[in-house]
Amino acid sequence: MIDLAIIGGGPAGLSAGLYATRGGLKDVVLFERGAPGGQITGSSEIENYPGVAAVQSGIDFMTPWQEQCFRFGLKHKMAEVSRVEKSGEHFKIFYDEGNGEMTAEALSVIVCTGGRPRRSGIKGESEFWGRGVSTCATCDAFFYKKKEVAVLGGGDSAVEEAIYLTKFASKVYLIHRRSEFRAAPITLEHARSNEKIEFLTPFVVEEICGDNAGVNALRLKNVESGAEKILNVPVIFEFVGYEVNNAVLKQKDGSFLCDVDKWGNVVVDLKMHTSVPGLFAAGDLRIDAQKQVICAAGDGTTAALQAINYVEALHKHKN
């Protein structure tokens, strides 16, 4: 019987493993199909993590995390988890190490499977991903100080990030295929009153153009008139949705093991408790996640401390 199963090996999962093992839990297993590190390992530069002054790649940044976490006894099972179920007081983990489905039982579970920004599918997007195509203004705005930038999207995230980018960029082009926006009226009002933001509607991005140095232009098309426009910018920030990796919580009947909101984000309280006792969620998977490494690490720590309390209470009850 596993004391704590941690599903997902990004900053939230590794932090949870560190604090759970160092906090006294003896049998803590991290389920991660590949090398731990998470989505952040795909970043070319990390420079905003407190206490880490040197600019590092995502891989270099996450490598010491693994060493530190496993030092205290965290076990890594290189397996892909397909589903988590609640069976009585225990949880059943369904996983595959490459030889067919297997199961393990755990007293508690922390799900840290994260998510990923939805891609637009625009021509040139894959070619320039990370080289002028970004989905994180907080991460990358600094690199475009006093430059003109573009934002794609029509929801709250797109408009809010456009406003945020005005703190750095000389001008922000907000591109949306419709004249109407899904963003909250008050947010839209703030954007329209910001002289640095120019609305380009109803336009679609036909192609992201560039060279070896990265993005240098966008080819736009007006969906009503058909007129084309070239926008000379070094970056496009895409905010066309976010997909959380919640598949492990989906049950055989299609329902979810715990409460999720209408977008599939796991509903948690401030201590990372889900609606199911003993089940915790941390990082980008949860509601209202800030999608920053430091926030995910804090979530994982909080969840681990709560899991310790939960497991210790179970052991005391049995004794």
TrEMBL record:
InterPro entries, alphabetized: FAD/NAD-bd_sf, FAD/NAD-binding_dom, Ferredoxin-NADP_redctase_2, Pyr_nucl-diS_OxRdtase_2_AS, Thioredox_Rdtase
Enzyme class: oxidoreductase
GO cellular component term, pick one: cytoplasm
Organism: Helicobacter saguini
GO MF, any single term: thioredoxin-disulfide reductase (NADPH) activity
Manner of cofactor binding, per the entry note: Binds 1 FAD per subunit.
Record keywords, A-Z: Disulfide bond, FAD, Flavoprotein, NADP, Oxidoreductase, Redox-active center
Lineage: Bacteria, Pseudomonadati, Campylobacterota, Epsilonproteobacteria, Campylobacterales
Catalytic reaction equation(s): [thioredoxin]-dithiol + NADP(+) = [thioredoxin]-disulfide + NADPH + H(+)
Record-annotated FAD/NAD(P)-binding domain positions: 3-299
GO BP field: removal of superoxide radicals
EC number assigned by the record: 1.8.1.9
Cofactor (UniProt): FAD
Oligomer and partners: Homodimer.
NCBIfam families per record: TRX_reduct
One Pfam match: Pyr_redox_2
Protein name: Thioredoxin reductase
Family listed: Belongs to the class-II pyridine nucleotide-disulfide oxidoreductase family.
